[in-house]
Amino acid sequence: MAGKLVSVFKLLEPADQLKFFEFLSSKLSPDPAAVLEAAKAYAENADSESLIHLLKTVEPPRQELFRRLNRAPDGTQTIVRMRERLLQHVKAKPALRAVDADMQHLLGSWFNPGFLELYEVTWSSPAKLLEKIIQHESVHAIDGWEDLRRRLQPDRRCYAFFHPQLPGEPLIFVEVALVPAIAKEVGSLLDKKSEALDTKKFKTAIFYSISNCQPGLKGVNLGNFLIKRVAEKILQEVPSVKTFCTLSPVPGFNRWLDALPSSLTPQQLADKKDKMASAVNQLMPDGEPWSKRINSGWQAITAPAEEKTALLRLCLIFLSKHAHSPMGDSVAKFHLANGAELHNVNWAADLSKKGLTQSSSIMVNYLYELDKVELNHEKYLKKIVVYSKSLDRLF
Model-level pTM? Predict the structure, then answer.
């Protein structure tokens, strides 16, 4: 039965897939009356038997359906694709959120690090896999085969997680540059005509791109385990590498900048001792959104020193003071929660159009000191952002 459902779902039109999801929501949810009765029984007698009964009653019947599908041939991959389709409807159909929560919960168990396989992607890897790396690179687009070949030279590495039930399908991959020191701009790392460095110069591993390949695994935590596993692998393979650091974009910075003037009171903007307000006045004296300056031809390499100082200060405030807020930067949240240190904020680091429009060409180094990641992670959970003391000058 499960195998037949796997086959049928692949043939369904989008409208019929939506009907299937709505069936899962309306017909395979827990019985509210039974849940209430079980909850009352547990409240009256909080023993293990009543707890087990409550847990069984609360669990939606559709979870057992998903488990059976997962055991069918091609079932795991079908569930991942199924959730990818489901996510397209959740915003317009809030009732489907519970179905999505069930799928994410189960996928989180089935795709835990113990089941994943880490492989290095090389120029000798199958062509289909290399095509998927080009297709799914989401941070710094790969400009054809020559570009990919350069990214797979001895001083560049690409590692990906795979799952046994999805053969040949990368789940997530990270690109790494092996360099003499912490990189402060991305242009040299992406230069496809650059010469590969001598292996004797490998001192630092720069994680410069992390890309998810499976939309159906959104929310399933893979990236933090990937970075740590890759760092351990590089330590074994390249003992001269002692430093692990990212060169990361700040995709939410310009959006936050646009909203900043209206979030400050006239009194704050008039306070000359307030460094954030002074920076806002320096960049947007008339209250116009920063994106207007960007669209009018502003460039980091020609900006005056005062604007450089103002932007670096505001970026540091954004990353360190708003890391836990809804407006916080998604990349910062990922690395800081993963135990990295906010190490440096780099000027004119990404001069591409994407880098300009997202973050005014600023990029960030997040430092992974492997013996401190757990402590830093615990601090982040307590709303503390760990940053390099060298950044104090910008506050």
Answer: 0.91
